[in-house]
Amino acid sequence: MYVPAHYRGSPEAALAVVRAGPLATLVTGADPVPFATHLPVIVPPEVEQALRDGPADLRGHRLIGHMNRANPHWRHIASGEHPSLLIFRGPDGYISPEIYGYTPAAPTWNFTAVHVRGTLRPLPAGEETLRVIHRTVRALEGRFGRRWDMRESLDYFDKIVPAVGAFELDVEEVDGMFKLSQELNEETREKTTQHFATSEHGTHRDLANEMERVNAARCPMSEREK
C-alpha cells in the first residue's frame, strides 16, 4: 500500500484499527488472480498481554483467524506456509468541495486502512482449530456482543469444527494509511470534521473522532487554545 508520509499512522493507531475492525480481508497469491476472503481475525489473548506490557506494535507478534474449509482459498493455503496480506478497514467518508466553502477545490475520500503482511500457517484440524473458534467467540462477544455464554453450544461447536479451517499469521510488516485531511489548513479541517461529526451515518462520526485525534496530535497545545 502506498502511504504518503503525512498520512502514515503510528503502530498504536494501526493496532487500534485492527482491534476495532476484526472483519479482515485475507489475500494470498494465486494464478491467474489472488485469492481474497473476508473473515474474522483477532489478536490472541497472550499477544494482547504482550502489547500491554511492551510496545503497542503488532510486528513480531501473531494474529489468528478461520474460514470455511469448503472455500477454495482454504484448499490453496492448507498445504503449508504462505506469504499473506490482511487488510483491515476503519471509518471512511466522501468529502464534497461544498464543505470547504471555496474554489478551486476537488472532491476526495477520507479513510483509514491497515495492511498487515506476514507468513500464514494453517493449523491442524481438531483441538487447535476449536481453540481458535473459542478464542474468537470470546473476543468478539466481549467487544461487540452481549456477553453470550457459549457453554451451552460447545457440543454444537464440536460438530461444526471439521468444516472450519484455522490459521495463524506471523506479522512482519504493518502499514497504516490515515487519510484525514492533514493536507488542509486548520479551518478547513475543522469544517470537514464537523461535517462528519453531525452526520446521520454512524461511521462518519467515528471518522470525525479519528480526524480530531490526528488534528490534536499535529497541533501544539498553545495553537489549539488560540
Automatic annotation (TrEMBL):
The residues that cross the membrane are: none
Pfam families, sorted? FMN_bind_2 (PF04299)
InterPro entries (UniProt xref): Split_barrel_FMN-bd, TR_PAI2-type
| UniProt superkingdom | Bacteria
Designated name of the protein: FMN-binding negative transcriptional regulator
